[in-house]
Amino acid sequence: MTFRSLALSNIRGNWRSYSAFFWSSVFSVIIFYMYAAFIYHPDVINGNILQAQKIRTGMQFCLYLIAIFSFLFVLYANSAFLKTRKQEFGLFSLFGMTRSQLRRLVIYENAAVALLSLITGIAIGMLFSKLFFMALGAILSVKDPIPFAAPVFAIALTGIGFFALSMGIALLTSLRIGKSEIVDLLKAARKPKGDLVFSKWLVVLAVLCLGAAYGMALNMTVETFLLLALPILITVTIGTYFLFTQLSVLAIRFLQRKHSVFYNRTNMIVLSQLGYKLRDNARILFMVSIMSAVILTASGTFYLMQVGYKLMVSNFSPYTIAYVERGLHTNEVVDPEQMAGILEKNGHPITREDKLVGAEITKLKLESENKQSHDYSNSKGFVISASEYNHSAAALGLPAVEVEQDTVILQASWIKAPQTIQGVINGVTVDYKISESVNSTIMNMTSYLFTIIMDDFAYSKLMASIPEEKQIVAYGYEVKDWESAAEAVGQVQKLVPESKKEQTHMTRASMYQDYMQDANLTLFIGLFISLLFFIAAGSLIYFKLFTELQEDQQQFRALKRIGMTLQEIRRISVSQIAIVFYIPCVVGTIHALVAMKALDTLMGSSVWLYSFVVIGIFIIMQTFYFIIASVSYMKSINRPGPAS
């Protein structure tokens, strides 16, 4: 038998342990290849897809992220797998195999699994790359579909990169082989695990850290966000680590002392073994919990940013199309009939319109509290009546205002406690006392910095002194499905004379469309990165279960000999696997929900529905992995083996 045939034989014999590692590696290869295939697609490289150029940097960053993540995953999997094979290596050494031969055997095994993963991953990646291109084309609004391509450089980069990564890790881990004596290797599986111990002080530290993190998060405000963000991250990380390494041991010990629970049916065996499983898997459970919380929180934050941006642009620009004209009925900016025709033709008819008539105020000066003066002489303001403001505000669902006689209300939230405003209207210097300021915007004002709301009597008196040709008229038009109306609005913009462009404000739809395009692309990329993590996280737990398979087989054979039924053994195994799979899921979900509550407070928006959808997907994926692990584990437990 050659080393190559021995390596292949070992892989077949340990395939259940290798399978989770193999399929996770395959998924990493698939994601890496599809990203690389898009980045090095001929049409992207040659600039034929203009929209794709701006996302190449983000896609390349994801390639680095996938490579780093894969390196850490393969490194851990190899190290953990080698620890479970100490007895096997001890037998090989007993039969005369040298340390260098053991290392060569491990390298051959890794090379075979790496090649199989690469061939399978690249083949599946090619098969699904067209769907990947179609999805990206839809997000980027590419008119012509992105053609299928299998760039040679993408294949070479994926193949060479992942094979070099696997071989490098195999070389590093193989160097650790042979440092133990043969007798230690043979007895590795029979070493006692020791007592379950914990530190009371570290338990207290875990509780204090998690309590402090949750308290800071729930009481965080916009002003304290930057101050508290890092302390929250540090305390929740420390608290979660000691939750699994210390607090979990305390919980097990507590249940063991509670006789009504401990001596109920098979709980004695479940709790006795579970304590060691939680202790041995503490680091993995900690990492999965933290990463789950990060991904779930990031998903909720991203959704909140999308909702928040739409609300922000709507508040800043209440209308999709807005412009101002000097003089009543001049139509100097755009012909309303032509505009309506274009919008109707493109499927975005006008659903609401507004018109504000007012006066222009120039050479502005404001005085705020403490007699602090603000010079806005290069800016202009727009004076309207309280009745017009309230009429427009009602249409937008905004609160009405009431202006006191001989005062005005200033629409400017960035000036603290304004007291008076001075300026020039129609050549006459005016000075108004400001009763209050509001931040509600009722019209997209292009060249006007302030809106000044005057009581109706004073407004009528003012407008009577201004000729119609010098009065300012602001028009606002809302259209159907404004979120997708950027192209139609662009056609309307072409009707505006170049000299009148500054009097228009029609950027809401295009700004929103550009933002959502980038946001959807980020979501698309993040989805694949999240899937990669969730699959790898489940694989690590699955893999760790099977590294303890031989020891569990011996324990369950002993339980069979003393009369325990197969159904009881199955209940014990499934209970332990469920706890190991779902504890990090529950902890990560709690962390994420607290973070979502903090974001709700900060942003004034609710993301609970979206958060529960993301959490539900995560739980479904964990359940899918749990079912596979349980079925596979029970088959392996019941498989005949050497007598203990």
Features:
single chain, 644 residues, alpha+beta, 6-stranded mixed beta barrel, 22 helices, elongated
Give the low-confidence spans.
Answer: none
Globally, the shape reads: elongated
Q: What profile does the largest beta sheet have?
A: 6 strands, mixed, barrel
Strand order of the largest sheet: 2-4-8-5-7-6
Total count of helical runs of at least 4 residues:
22
Number of strands: 10
Description:
The protein is of the alpha+beta class. The protein is 64% helix and 12% strand. The chain has 22 helices and ten strands. It has a six-stranded mixed β-barrel with strand order 2-4-8-5-7-6. Strand 2 (350-368) and strand 3 (373-376) form a beta hairpin. Helix 2 (15-39) runs antiparallel to helix 19 (508-547), helix 5 runs parallel beside helix 19 and helix 14 packs parallel to helix 21 (566-603). It is elongated and about 110 Å long. The two termini are 28 Å apart. The mean pLDDT is 79.
Report a brief summary of the structure.
This protein is an alpha+beta fold. It has helices at residues 3-13, 15-39, 42-45, 50-53, 56-84, 86-94, 99-139, 152-174, 182-186, 200-218, 225-257, 259-262, 267-280, 282-316, 336-345, 386-396, 456-464, 486-493, 508-547, 549-561, 566-603, 608-637, and strands spanning 321-326, 350-368, 373-376, 380-385, 407-411, 418-425, 428-438, 448-454, 472-479, 504-505.
Topology (elements, then pairings):
Elements: H1 3-13, H2 15-39, H3 42-45, H4 50-53, H5 56-84, H6 86-94, H7 99-139, H8 152-174, H9 182-186, H10 200-218, H11 225-257, H12 259-262, H13 267-280, H14 282-316, E1 321-326, H15 336-345, E2 350-368, E3 373-376, E4 380-385, H16 386-396, E5 407-411, E6 418-425, E7 428-438, E8 448-454, H17 456-464, E9 472-479, H18 486-493, E10 504-505, H19 508-547, H20 549-561, H21 566-603, H22 608-637
Parallel strand pairs: 4-8, 5-7
Antiparallel strand pairs: 1-9, 1-10, 2-3, 2-4, 2-6, 2-9, 5-8, 6-7
Helix pairs in contact: 1-7, 2-5, 2-7, 2-8, 2-19, 5-8, 5-19, 7-8, 10-11, 11-13, 11-14, 13-21, 14-19, 14-21, 14-22, 15-18, 18-19, 19-22, 21-22
